[in-house]
Amino acid sequence: MDDRGAQRGLAMDADVIVVGAGLAGLAATAELADAGKKVLLLDQEPETSLGGQAYWSFGGLLFVDSPEQRRMGIRDSRDLALQDWLGSAGFDRLDDEDSWSRRWAEAYVDFAAGEKRAWLHAQGVRFFPVVGWAERGGYLADGHGNSVPRFHITWGTGPGLVAPFERRVREAVANGLVELRFRHRVDELTVTGGTVDGVAGKVLEPSDVARGAASSREETGDFALTAQAVIVTSGGIGGNHDLVREQWPARMGKPPANLISGVPAHVDGRMLAITEAAGGRYVNRDRMWHYTEGIRNWDPIWPLHGIRILPGPSSLWFDATGKRLPVPLFPGFDTLGTLEHIVATGYDYSWFVLTQKIVEKEFALSGQEQNPDLTGKDVKGVLGRARGGATAPVQAFLDKGADFVVRDNLADLVRGMNHVAGADLIDAAGLERQIVARDRELDNAFTKDLQVTALRGARNYRGDKLIRVAPPHRILDPKAGPLIAVKLNILTRKSLGGLQTDLDSRVLRADGSPLPGVYAAGEVAGFGGGGVHGYRSLEGTFLGGCLFSGRTAGRAAAKATS
Questions:
Q1: Do residues 313 and 333 touch, judged by C-beta distance below 8 A?
Q2: pLDDT tens across 224-233, in order?
């Protein structure tokens, strides 16, 4: 930094301002404080929402060749993981919007295969010993999906992952290095001489709403703050359905008329436009990651609150008219492919049809509050999952969920499905024909039904056999009943595009040069580079992307400031 910059820094409110107190913001702030920098951490929400979306998460992290994988008999490697990542990402804008995304992808896989686990472990983070197999793909070896299980659940779920970074930040607060300013909504990045040197916005009235609930937007005053650098870590667009529909990719047809939200309303995407206005470049805005297994929360916390089912592979998946989804669109195989197919049907929902045996073994719900045993680090409670029976949160949805139909026979089940849908779209005879055809495939060790093949293959992995995949059985076997149908809604979650950044997390301008004074991390940066995932995620990579890019931004900004 030149003398003029150093003199300017002495008169400023902080060395660095971080906008957004989610996981990426906490990671960046912790790194800055470790380097002795003075930091202002701003967030428009009250202090109860510290940790952002990560707090609500299941705590899934992708590691490569971890001790947990090796103990489960999984052979993984950096090269295999990169093959899977690139096959899923499908980067096709390498001369432009993907130019940095592709480099971030390789850097992230190196991190996941290298120091990521040891870095977290040193901070006290621990992991559930059974590794999950998310996004199984179902295509060729160089196509989409995880070739092996890589989904590691944090012991303590989202709160357990947020905790060490919150602790580091609060220690820095006590030491006078960090100041937390909640209810500060940033409306502008201020620019002097082409360099971003601060933020301006409105102070919102104090709020005591519960974590995640919608807070007031009543303004009580103005603020303007200056710093040598600003790090934007404000999240994505999933809570802003208007923006989701505005940016909905044309390749996926007409945006769904009905959406439910997997994130709180404050995940509004405002800082993307604000950073653009200051000269930053927003790329890959047509890439997004929404789930097709969403259910309306019977006990909502935020508006249109939805929960994602984390399904095992046994449920039969039907579209709104009762047609079985094509290969390889089985539960847990290809999120985006399934979304594209469902939207193409002209409807914005689909159905699982399953049995009590399947729901007990295979249904998990995303979110820390839906997993009190894992979140509370309750060993006895977790062991109870292997003994059979639905978990208490799953049972609550079976009893109270508006999207669940439980009946003793197929005719009654179909009547219930049509009632929930509000239209007689499903023909009982047609549904029965498809289910009976599938059930006949279980009479032999041979089959042409690739979902049955997938079930048998999954149970070759002892993690799936132990707690995740039910023994193959006839759906219409009364001994496996009752029958269950679940209406699945489209659930907004992540934007995969974002502010384009170089490998130091510096926000870039349209001409490819860094926008002086600005860094970005987490979802607002597409988890790195403006879209590290490309078109598809391997799962367990959103929280990890926040950590990696937040750490990178914090370290880079620390080096760049005097």
A1: yes
A2: 999 999 999 9
